[in-house]
Write a structure and sequence with these properties.
This protein has about 575 residues and is of the alpha+beta class. The chain has two domains: about 50-195, Tetratricopeptide repeat domain (Serine Threonine Protein Phosphatase 5, Tetratricopeptide repeat), CATH 1.25.40.10; about 245-575, Porin, CATH 2.40.160. About 30% of the residues lie in helices and about 45% in strands. The chain has twelve helices and 14 strands. A 14-stranded antiparallel beta barrel has the order 1-2-3-4-5-6-7-8-9-10-11-12-13-14. A hairpin with a 3-residue loop joins β10 (about 470-480) and β11 (about 485-500). α2 packs antiparallel against α3 (about 65-75). The longest helix has about 45 residues, at about 180-225. The protein is globular. The chain starts with a helix and ends with a strand.
């Protein structure tokens, strides 16, 4: 009997053990499943400190790529080991894997940062335009360290971006020993932040005065009706700090400036064998223009915000007036009958004078549909009045579109309808579809690409132009010191059935064209109220007519190469 009871108890114990094991295997775990480290004979049995020491030896020897591999293996077993995360981030930074370094630095507790790691931490976020963590890191570099001056400089620039102007001035003032490039930029930034501080103080004073005036007016009203004043909860626009972050904006600047343009157009026979001779001609044009323009407008926040971004409506009015003076020369080669030597005949064309005005009222509405996505509608009218000689053009514009605005990446698509009227008569209807995107590789370097297709409906059939145009553009821009920018772009344009009237020997000729443009631009604002721009471009055109015998006549009417150079300067007043 006793033996039977003993066997029964043992059976129950075994069944209980098996049951617990089975239920435990089926119970889900709340911990993430980490990949197992494949141990080799060299790492088998080592603890985290020994593994970290091996990785640090690689880091100290300058073998940063090997060090990242070693640190990644440690983090698979010990994902929260702070010394490993820090050196992993620093090694990634040193081999220019900045996004990986930024991700790792974000996991580091700031109190373990030394001077060098704090500087690298700051640079990782500074290059991504994440100025708040960059500023925090730069401020952790002690004053007596060799990197302190550079840290103060980049910390000061970060503070400007964060609109902490007093801190920016303090940090930039302390940045004394700098490389030549940063030293020049420091002087400009100090002047800039000084102006910003003055504007901020004036703005604050104006707000205080406005609030005092409002309070006095309320007290006067209260004195008349005998009711005690109620403190106002209203704030001015300056206190609200509303800043629209979508694709649309308003222009609130006035400009007074001048423009000088030189243009050379080359005409010639693409198939001289058709007529048995060659034709070549250059038309040189020179224009100078003086202009005054101004933009006024306002953005009104509307509705409930989405992730801190408000729907908004904008009203904008832009006006411009200008005078232009032009002159030109036609250069035609010819061969004399006597000596058979090719010479050039230069014929000066009559100069021209024009005075004109532009008025462009616009209204738009833009709504955030996701944290980084926007949808917008826009409508307006553009009036161009040429007073000398007298003529007038009006254009109705309506478009809708949307896109994504992220930290370093933008993408946008829109559809536009335009109706152009010349002398109050409907002339051209245009439908335009556009897609574009840009990517910021680093704080100073950006690449943009766009594609545009346009379809034209000529209500007035006497107007020259293509039935459609499809073009693609690629551009790269580089930010330089002194608020300067250098950009280069290339454009390829395919035009279908470009109709030209009054062609020699023909009433009208249609041709398909391939047009390539290379353009270089430089603009700078050495002073907040002064800007200077330079532009040069070369345009190559190749045309193919429907009938071969029309080719040379068309070529003599349409240039196959155009070179332009332009200089613009303007004084700017913001309000």
């Amino acid at each position: 009997m006793n033996q039977s009871l003993a066997r029964l108890c043992m059976s129950l114990i075994v069944l209980s053990s098996v049951s617990n094991t089975a239920w435990g295997a089926e119970k889900p775990s709340n911990k993430p499943v980490l990949p197992k480290l494949k141990e080799t004979s060299s790492s088998s049995g080592k603890n985290v400190n020994e593994l970290f020491r091996d990785g640090k030896e690689l880091f100290d020897a300058g073998k940063f790529g090997d060090a990242t591999l070693a640190f990644s293996k440690i983090l698979k077993k010990f994902p929260e080991h702070q010394p490993t995360i820090l050196l992993y981030a620093r090694a990634s930074y040193k081999i220019n894997k900045f996004s990986e370094a930024r991700y790792l630095f974000a996991r580091v507790k700031p109190d373990i940062l030394d001077a060098e790691s704090a500087y690298e931490y700051g640079q990782s976020f500074y290059m991504a335009n994440q100025f708040a963590p960059a500023l925090m890191a730069f401020q952790r570099v002690p004053d007596n360290h060799s990197l302190s001056d550079l840290s103060r400089f980049y910390g000061g620039v970060s503070a400007i971006k964060l609109k902490q102007y007093e801190l920016a001035e303090d940090l930039l003032t302390k940045a004394l020993v700098l490389p030549e490039k940063e030293a020049r930029s420091r002087a400009s930034y100090l002047k800039h932040v000084g102006r910003l501080l003055d504007m901020q103080q004036k703005q604050s004073l104006a707000v205080e005065r406005a609030n005092e005036k409002n309070m006095q007016q309320r007290e006067l009203r209260v004195a008349k009706i005998g009711t005690p004043p109620v403190p106002s909860t209203e704030t001015t626009d300056a206190n609200k700090g509303f800043e629209h972050k979508g694709f649309q904006s308003v222009d609130r600047q006035a400009r007074i400036g001048a423009l000088i343009l030189n243009q050379t157009q080359v005409f010639g026979d693409s198939q001289p064998e058709i007529e048995g001779g060659e034709f070549s001609e250059e038309q040189l044009a020179f224009e100078r223009q003086y202009f005054v323009s101004a933009g006024i407008g306002h953005v009104f926040p509307m509705g409930q915000p989405t992730d801190g971004k408000h729907p908004a409506m904008g009203l904008n009015l832009r006006v411009k007036g200008f005078e232009s003076y032009s002159s030109g020369t036609v250069v035609t080669p010819y061969t004399t009958d006597t000596d058979n030597i090719t010479r050039q005949q230069r014929t000066r064309t009559s100069g021209g004078f024009a005075r004109a005005a532009e008025v462009k009222p616009y209204v738009w509405f833009e709504n955030p549909i996701q944290p980084d996505m926007w949808f917008y509608l826009k409508a307006g009218y553009e009036l161009f009045k040429l007073m000398t000689p007298s003529s007038q053009e009006g254009k109705i514009v309506a478009l809708f579109g949307g896109g994504k605005k992220a930290e370093n990446f933008d993408a946008e698509a829109n559809l536009t309808y335009e109706q152009l009227s010349i002398a109050s008569k409907a002339s051209i209807n245009t439908v335009r579809a556009k897609v574009s995107s840009s990517y910021k590789w680093m704080p100073t370097l950006k690449t943009a690409i766009s594609g545009i297709h346009e379809s034209f409906d000529y209500v007035d059939e006497s107007i020259d132009g293509p039935s459609s145009s499809t073009r693609a553009q690629l551009s790269t821009s580089l930010d330089l010191p002194l608020d300067s920018e250098l950009s280069v772009s290339g454009t390829a344009d395919y035009q279908l059935r470009n109709l030209v009237h009054e062609v020699v020997n023909y009433g009208e000729v249609a041709a398909d064209g391939h047009i390539e443009t290379i353009e270089l631009k430089f603009k700078t604002s050495p002073l907040p109220w002064w800007t200077l721009g330079l532009r040069t471009s070369i345009i190559f055109a190749t045309w193919t007519t429907d009938e071969q015998e029309q080719q040379n006549s068309f070529d003599r009417t349409t240039p196959y190469q155009t070179t332009e150079s332009e200089l613009t300067t303007a004084f700017i007043f913001s309000f």
